[in-house]
Design goal:
little secondary structure
């Protein structure tokens, strides 16, 4: 390459041992400068005969290159009884699985219900009581419950019943339905998503099973 550019090849100098006695006693100051690649004229074929010269380019340094490594963020989890809470904000680890928990959920640890008031769900005191004296029902709209005129009316024609969900009342398809097959009765969260009849039946079966287990345990002992 230097012969094609009309340059004389530079003789390679012998490596200097800076630990030798000759180098220490020498008065010549040796300043190491980075080697420069030769610059040469270059003519652009698109723009005629305008001469352009490349700027000197530093030769790549010798030796192994070192690249800075980025530190990975560690997500340290702290165990608190049966519930694991992550140190990273906005996440909670319930039974080992990562669950997103934002401001829409109840602030109580381990509860994944939707927050209603003051960042708490109905079970943990997040509901507002009806403002009518001696009424313990939850307020829906205007500070009163359904019994005292709270909520919105059903959107079905000529229906004066309070709507439950999707703008309609229970009779017109609003609200939750019983989880039992073939049952279309209204269901609630407090009754394990069952209607009142099937919830009472479930409680009765559980009570009979508990009594039978206790009697069997006494006879065995």
């Amino acid at each position: 390459m230097p012969q094609l550019l009309g340059l004389k090849p530079k003789q390679q100098s012998k490596p200097v041992n800076k630990c030798s006695l000759d180098f220490i006693l020498s008065k010549d100051e040796i300043i190491s400068k980075p080697a420069l690649l030769p610059s040469f004229p270059w003519t652009s074929p698109q723009r005629g005969s305008s001469n352009k010269t490349f700027a000197p380019i530093l030769a790549p340094p010798s030796g192994p290159c070192k690249f800075a490594k980025r530190r990975r963020l560690l997500n340290i989890s702290v165990s608190n009884g049966s519930t694991k809470v992550s140190a990273k904000a906005g996440k909670a680890l319930a039974s080992g699985s990562v669950v997103k928990k934002g401001s829409k959920y109840c602030m109580v640890d381990g509860c994944m219900s939707r927050a209603k008031h003051a960042r708490r769900c109905w079970r943990h005191g997040g509901s507002v009581k009806c403002k009518i004296p001696d009424c313990t029902n939850r307020a829906k709209t205007k500070g009163v419950c359904w019994s005292h005129g709270g909520g919105t009316l059903c959107s079905f024609r000529d229906c004066t019943t309070i709507s439950v969900s999707n703008g309609v009342c229970w009779a017109h398809g609003g609200g939750k339905r019983c989880a039992m097959d073939g049952c279309a009765r209204p269901a609630y969260e407090r009754t394990d998503h069952l209607c009142t009849l099937h919830f009472e039946e479930k409680q009765y079966i559980a009570q009979v099973h508990s009594i039978t287990t206790q009697c069997h345990h006494k006879h065995t002992c």
